[in-house]
Specification:
Bound molecules: (2S)-amino(hydroxy)ethanoic acid, manganese (II) ion
CATH superfamily of the largest domain: Zn peptidases
Radius of gyration: 23 Å
Largest sheet: 9 strands, mixed
Number of strands: 15
Distance between the termini: 7 Å
Structural class: alpha/beta
Helix content: 25-40%
Order of helices and strands: HHEEEHEHHHHEHEEEHEEEHEEHEHEH
Number of domains: 2
Low-confidence stretches: none
Number of helices: 13
Mean pLDDT: 97
Oligomer: single chain
Length: 416
């Protein structure tokens, strides 16, 4: 990156980083060591107050875009028109873990402060970012899609987290729907995006490798399925005369899993929420609503899986004497990581003496919003037992510090 020799021995201030990480983990914390910071909730907004105070304490200039994403900029570039973005997200899944997202945002702030303290002059500025609603408790990759100018109005009209929850969150945060569509960045102003994240899977730990260099991020599609039958008396309705929406939903869930395991072994499918209505012990459910999500690293396979799952929903509905309504909620394309970023991470890892493993991400990330906008790369560190989206999410502290030092050195190695 810089014309001067790379300060390969520059390291972060690990004690300061630990204090930051622990301060974040205390915001929206849950007893069992997790955090509950759904996008634009009070707890998430509180974490953004922390972000602003921490960034200003580090001498960085803070800005907020129309989607509420928070940026902290270090004017260290010979070309101040462009910046390398480093960051992740401070929002969490409901009852999630304290590492998912927060690690990458705290790491970005620490890297910028370390560069500022070292008085480095780089080709472009550095920016730390906390993207809004990466987790999709409202829309999904909301902040990064808004910055990349590919947020669709339909996603805001019919968001997967529910329209009222989105409107309430926007209001709480002082944001507007119109503002979401004014958050677009000129691609020419972005030199690249680099994110440190926990793997959220078991591969690095099982292989005993400290660092993952992400090759690609998985594509994700979300649907709401509603099976409808006839609510009826649970005691007097003969078993063979029921139009039981719960039965249709259960049949679909079992058949969907079997379809993926047998015919789409590289993919995953999940029904993360199921609501039966009216929802009483003694009523045969007349309505069943499912939150369906499925993923593939390949666009064509994602299309084929979508077709197969929707056909399955129709078949299971017919078999149970039900109707089924299918509501498309959003799609994030699979995204390859940029070779220049992967090489910068690889060079930096070699300088740090860290063995790496190239691996695809089964989790979605903001990088898939940015990958067709600017060179994008991701660094993974091991997750203990591969657990994530759970209060039991954990990464060893030395792995976290390795990750931040690698983020620092990869940012210095990257040639915009
Ligand atoms: O859902 C995901 O894959 C990511 O953690 N948002
Ligand atoms: Mn994440
Ligand atoms: Mn997540």
């Amino acid at each position: 990156m810089p014309s001067i020799p790379l300060p390969k021995d520059l390291r972060i201030n690990a004690a300061r980083f630990l204090a930051d990480f622990e301060a974040l983990a205390a915001i929206g914390s849950t007893q069992d060591g997790g955090v509950n910071r759904p996008a634009l909730s009070e707890a998430h907004l509180q974490s953004r107050v922390w972000f602003r105070e921490r960034a200003e304490r580090a001498g960085l200039v803070v800005s907020v875009d129309g989607a509420g994403s928070h940026f902290a900029r270090l004017a260290c570039g010979q070309n101040p028109e462009r910046s390398l973005l480093l960051g992740s997200h401070l929002d969490s899944v409901p009852m999630g873990g304290r590492f998912d997202g927060a690690l990458g945002v705290a790491a970005a702030l620490e890297v910028l402060e370390t560069v500022r303290e070292a008085g480095l002059h780089l080709p472009v500025d550095l920016e730390a970012v906390d993207f809004t609603d990466e987790e999709g408790t409202l829309v999904g990759l909301l902040g990064s899609a808004a910055l990349a100018n590919h947020l669709q109005p339909a996603e805001i009209q019919n968001p997967r987290g529910g329209r009222q929850r989105l409107l309430d969150g926007l209001q709480r945060a002082g944001l507007s729907e119109a503002g979401l569509f004014q958050a677009g960045r000129d691609p020419a102003s972005l030199a690249g995006y680099l994110e440190l994240h926990i793997e959220q899977g078991p591969r690095l730990e099982r292989k005993g490798i400290p660092v993952g260099v992400v090759t690609a991020i998985v594509g994700i599609v979300s649907y709401r399925l509603v099976f409808e039958g006839r609510a009826n008396h649970a005691g007097t309705t003969p078993m063979d005369e029921r139009c039981d929406a719960g039965l249709g939903a259960a049949g679909f869930m079992l058949a969907a899993r079997q379809l993926v395991v047998q015919s789409f072994p590289e993919c995953v499918v999940n029904v993360g929420a199921l609501k039966l209505e009216p929802g009483a012990f003694n009523i045969v459910p007349g309505r069943a609503e499912l939150a369906l999500e499925f993923r593939s690293a390949d666009q064509q396979t994602l299309d084929q899986l979508q077709q197969a799952l929707l056909a399955l929903a129709e078949r299971e509905a017919r078999a149970a004497g039900l109707s089924v309504t299918v509501v498309f909620l959003g799609r994030h394309e699979p995204a390859p990581m940029h070779p220049a970023m992967r090489q910068a991470i690889g060079r930096a890892a070699a300088d740090l003496g860290l063995v790496t493993l190239d691996l695809p991400s089964g989790a979605g990330h903001d990088g898939q919003s940015l990958a067709n906008l600017c060179p994008t790369g991701m660094i993974f560190i091991p997750s203990q037992a591969g657990i994530s989206h759970s209060p039991h999410e954990f990464s060893a502290w030395h792995d976290c510090v390795n990750g931040v030092n690698l983020l620092l050195q990869a940012a210095l190695n990257f040639n915009p």
